[in-house]
Automatic annotation (TrEMBL):
Protein name (Swiss-Prot/TrEMBL): Uncharacterized protein
Domain of life from the UniProt record: Archaea
Length: 281
């Protein structure tokens, strides 16, 4: 099947109910096995709102998610560097939702595949260099390799356990259970407050460093004992001097489950579910 063949999808804004027909390449559905395809609908495409569209492999609409990325992509300029990729280059090319997914994949240590058209050369080494700069330096640092393959090659491949993004920023595959990307969105917004491209990278790295320290802190606790979610959030907040909400705790759980391959995540208990289990016994 030609990579140029497309499906018409009628989307409806979940806020104002405005409708618009968008085109999505067929190959995205042909190679999908599990999970949803995620497409960011930017302001101006359908209406004045932006949201995420969820499609299954049959191109059926499974739902929408209202988002507030707070990033005006029209005001984001590409860097002047021709031999390196920076945060704003990725934002301009793929959009803020796709970039948030890239950072999330980095946190969880999943492979990243960014597709390219036949008119583009591979920039795999550039992507790899940029994203590895985000990772904190440590003796156990794993080198992340980013693949930048052709769309037509992806159609023939059988890829499941990797983040896959197409050349226009459509998130074709996410190998994790969907959770809000609050940390990733906030760290991108914070980085864009800085003009210097290299400094933006260090802002993200600082945020990731703190997050990994929190993950190590949680790991040390659950390797020894069970703990209730509320008690764990209080311990993290007390030790790191900042509030911890459910979204951050869920992110820490995913980091421990995937990056650290820690099976003790199940030791983190929900108070209500624990009481229900006690009642059953």
């Amino acid at each position: 099947m030609s990579e140029n063949e497309e499906k018409d999808i009628k989307v409806q804004c979940p806020i104002c109910q405005a409708e618009k027909v968008i085109k999505v390449p067929n190959y995205i559905f042909d190679n999908k096995k599990v999970g949803n395809i995620k497409i960011q609908i930017y302001k101006g495409i359908c209406c004045e709102h932006q949201f995420i569209l969820f499609l299954n492999k049959k191109s059926e609409i499974m739902g929408y998610e209202v988002i507030d990325m707070n990033i005006d992509l029209s005001a984001v300029e590409e860097s002047r560097s021709k031999d390196k990729i920076y945060l704003r280059d990725m934002l301009k090319t793929y959009g803020d939702y796709a970039v948030s997914c890239v950072i999330h994949s980095l946190l969880l240590d999943f492979p990243i595949i960014i597709l390219r058209t036949k008119y583009e050369g591979s920039r795999a080494s550039d992507f790899t260099y940029f994203l590895n700069k985000i990772l904190p330096d440590s003796p156990n640092k794993k080198i992340l390799l980013v693949s930048n393959i052709l769309e037509k090659d992806y159609q023939k491949a059988k890829i499941e356990n990797a983040l896959v993004i197409n050349p226009t920023g459509i998130v074709i595959n996410t190998p994790w259970k969907d959770i809000p990307l609050d940390f990733e969105t906030n760290i991108v917004n914070k980085s864009l407050e800085i003009i210097d491209d290299s400094t933006q990278t260090y802002i993200i790295q600082d945020g990731v460093t703190l997050l990994f320290k929190e993950a190590e802190f949680v790991k040390a606790i659950i390797d020894k004992e069970d703990i209730l979610e509320d008690d764990l959030k209080n311990k993290i907040a007390s030790n790191f001097m900042h509030n911890v909400d459910n979204q951050r705790l869920n992110l820490l759980k995913q980091i421990l489950e995937h990056r650290y391959r820690n099976g003790n995540v199940k030791r983190i208990k929900n108070r209500l579910l624990s009481k229900l289990d006690e009642g059953l016994w």
